[in-house]
Amino acid sequence: MSTDHVETSASIVSVSRHEHDIDTSNYLKAGYTLKSWLLTVDHKRIALLYLFGVTFFFIIGGILAFLIRLELVTPKGDLVSSDTYNRLFTQHGIIMIFLFLVPAIPGVFGNFLIPLMIGARDLAFPRINLASWYMYMAGALLTVVSMAMGGVDTGWTFYTPYSTTFSNGAVVTAGLGIFIIGFSSVFTGLNFAVTIHKMRAPGMTWFRLPLFVWAHYATSLIMLLGTPVLAITILLVAVERIWKVGLFDPSLGGDPILFQHLFWFYSHPAVYIMILPAMGVMSELFSTFSKKPVFGYEFIAMSSLAIAIVGFFVWGHHMLVSGQSEFAGLIFSALSFLVAIPSAVKVFNWTATLYKGSISFSTPMIYAFGFIGLFAIGGLTGLFLACLGMDYHVHDTYFVVAHFHYVMVGATIMGFLGALHYWWPKMTGKMYPEGWGQLAAIVIFLGFNFTFFPQFLLGYLGMPRHYHEYVPEFQILHILSSAGAMILGIGYLMPFTYLAYSVFYGKKAPANPWGATGLEWRTPSPPPVHNFDSIPTVDSKPYDYRTIREELSHVARA
Amino acid sequence: MNHVMPDHVVPLRVYLLVFIALIILTAITVQVAYIDLGLLNTPIAIIIASIKASLVVLYFMHVRYSEKLILLVVFVSIFTLILLFGFALSDYLTRYWIMLPIR
Ligand SMILES: [Cu+2]
Predict the structure, then answer these.
(1) Closest CA to A555 of A505, A507, A511
(2) Among candidates A199, A55, A56, A43, which has minimal Cα distance to A110?
(3) Which residues of A have a CB under 8 Å from any CB of B?
């Protein structure tokens, strides 16, 4: 639909209601048929499609995690066979990483919010956006089909030559699924980058963008530059597996470490695809719930870009004990410490934002504090692992498992759930029950630490990852971890329940329930189909609470 | 300079010249393959291929006539490729610099 369609709201709305019998004043009411959802090109509806998709696959991945933790309660492998256990943790990893963590925040909140935040009517390529969801679903379903075909037992990293020569799992099917999901990721990145470059509202200069948008800009660059390498690498695995072309298998003349270079070239930056969007969410949350402009705006914006760039320099820290040269190990180890700088810039600036702010402990803010806690532990233990000497000790142990769960899962889940609660009123037009929200946030934070902190100890004491049998002295820590997983699981079920409840029975949400800045709060909740009745003009820095306070008092008086 | 030039018309002559250049370069590649230049074999092949790729990108893909942003995209992509090759080579070229007893 063209823009001239929507310049003057009231009259046009009534006209289109006459013409098409469609209510364009609320995107949720613009069509109720299945077709109106499955063929929509509205970025807000596509965001909800993504929400449906990532939630569904998160549940499947969660069930697999539950089975893993159940098996690990006892030192003997008595619930599943070794072979089944290999498949369990592989599918858990593949589903959680490629089907949940990577698309979750960009797919749902990036899609929903970027056009609203920059004052645009949609993303640059609405149809490519819809296609990205279909690619995601197709790839995801193929990955699940590979589970039904006997599963994959290589670990989510598909290390060669095991994956190309020895594994008897459905490697090619699962790989094809990930290959297709990769395209969805590229589409999303392309759409975001072009939209942020080209579709900003008048006056919305680069340094007036909300930091959420900056974080997504950095993310989209990684998606565009990294994902193709992963796609090709997986294709090469399939080529070697099917046609026995010697690429990675030494017995065919290949080099297994080449696979690791190619794989981690994407998969280390992929961690930032997961966590940068969460960091973007955090900047919004810390500002809104302490009612202060973000401290050091330019530094946070640039640190997102720095993380995206430096993220491509460090992949070899996954290969310190793999047989890559000691010299390369030295370089990668040293460069890995660089990532700590922009990460610390962010954490310190968020903390400084709180100084003398009027802080409220609403649900999203509890997730924001949780993010700081989990990210600090996960990030700092990453420095342990980047040390050449220390890595020899803890490589391939539960220390690594605990580290990456803290930094990828902990941080991203905190960002996802924080964002879900913060923008829930905007997306659905309904308020969630605050008390339940706060309780669930605390339960999830505690459950997460209960689950994964014991794993640091396990790893340090020498419990290797990927094993389902272990020596009895580790049992107490494993039981602690499994008990924590139960708490965590209950914590996850709570938002499912009360958010679904709030859709039907929740209080109606005002346009700006938090007194937040940002263009997305200046349009009704839920927004109209074309986002804004008239395209807004921006004339000040972001996070300017003085003007918002005046406007809100105007609304209150009127 | 106008920042969007979607219908910049390139004279046919330019396309033909580029095409001829590509054919000549291909012929050179083939001829060079018959001469053993020792260590230079690979670098020369890569240099000729890069020139050809640049011609295609600059003229056939219109990057030469596009706005700066497009140029930036091209350079960032090449930079990323250099990162991939460069860091991977930092492993392969230094495999036996330091001999540790654990090997
Ligand atoms: Cu890494």
Answers:
(1) A511
(2) A43
(3) 197, 221, 225, 229, 257-258, 261-262, 265, 312-313, 315-316, 319, 324-328, 331-332
pLDDT at B67: 86
**ipTM field:** 0.84
Residues 6+ apart with CB under 8 A from A206: none
Tens-place pLDDT, residues A431-445: 999 999 999 999 999
Nearest CA in chain A to B79: A225
Give the pLDDT score at A557: 55
Residues in B touching A326 (Cβ below 8 Å): 94, 97-98, 100
* Residue whose C-alpha is closest to residue A46's, from A359, A356, A481, A427: A427
Rounded Cα distance between A371 and A397, Å, is 24
| CA separation for the pair A147, A14 (Å, rounded) | 51
For the segment A389-410, what is each residue's pLDDT rounded down to a tens digit?
999 999 999 999 999 999 999 9
pLDDT digits (tens, 9 = 90+) for A448-474: 999 999 999 999 999 999 999 999 999
Q: Where are the domains of chain A?
A: 3-273+438-557
Sequence length of chain A is 558
Inter-chain contact A258–B77, Cβ cutoff 8 Å? no
Name the nearest CA neighbour of A422 among A42, A103, A109: A109
Q: What is the pLDDT of residue A210?
A: 96
pTM: 0.91
Here the tokens at position A382 are: 């990453």
Of the options 1.20.210.10, 1.25.40.10, 1.10.10.10, 3.50.50.60, the CATH number for the domain spanning A3-273+438-557: 1.20.210.10
Question: How much is the average pLDDT of A49-74?
Answer: 96
Closest CA to A98 of A138, A69, A66: A138
A472 Cβ neighbours under 8 A, 6+ residues apart? A75
Closest chain B residue to the Cα of A264, Cα to Cα: B84
